[in-house]
Amino acid sequence: MATTSKQQAQETTGRSGPRCPACWGIKRRRAQALESDDLHTAVAMTVAMGRHLRAAHS
Ligand SMILES: [Zn+2]
Questions:
Q1: Looking at residue 41, what is its pLDDT?
Q2: Handedness of CA 46, 49, 55, 58 (dihedral sign)
Q3: In this model, does residue 55 exceed pLDDT 50?
Q4: What's the CA-to-centroid distance between 44 and ligand 1, angstroms?
Q5: Domain coordinates in residue numbering, the chain
Q6: Element (H or E) spanning 37, and its range?
């Protein structure tokens, strides 16, 4: 009945692999936090990344 087409970020930059939106968001947030000297958030994002990797990419 319902046809849902998932949008997939397709990067054709070698084998580094297309990152999922969650990875992207976390990475970007962490970079922004580091840029604004927000170590607390940066560390939190690192932890979140680790958790996400285990949960979604293990
Ligand atoms: Zn991910």
A1: 98
A2: negative
A3: yes
A4: 16
A5: 21-57
A6: none
User: How far is ligand 1, taken at its centre, from the CA of residue 14, in Å?
Assistant: 18
- In whole angstroms, how far apart are CA 37 and each of 4, 20, 24, 25, 42? 41, 26, 20, 18, 9
8 Å CB contact between 8 and 16:
no
Q: Report the separation in Å between the CA atom of 45 and the middle of ligand 1, taken as the mean of its atom positions.
A: 13
Distance 24 CA to ligand 1 centre (A): 7
How do residues 27-38 score in pLDDT, each as one tens digit?
A: 999 999 999 999
**Model pTM?**
0.66
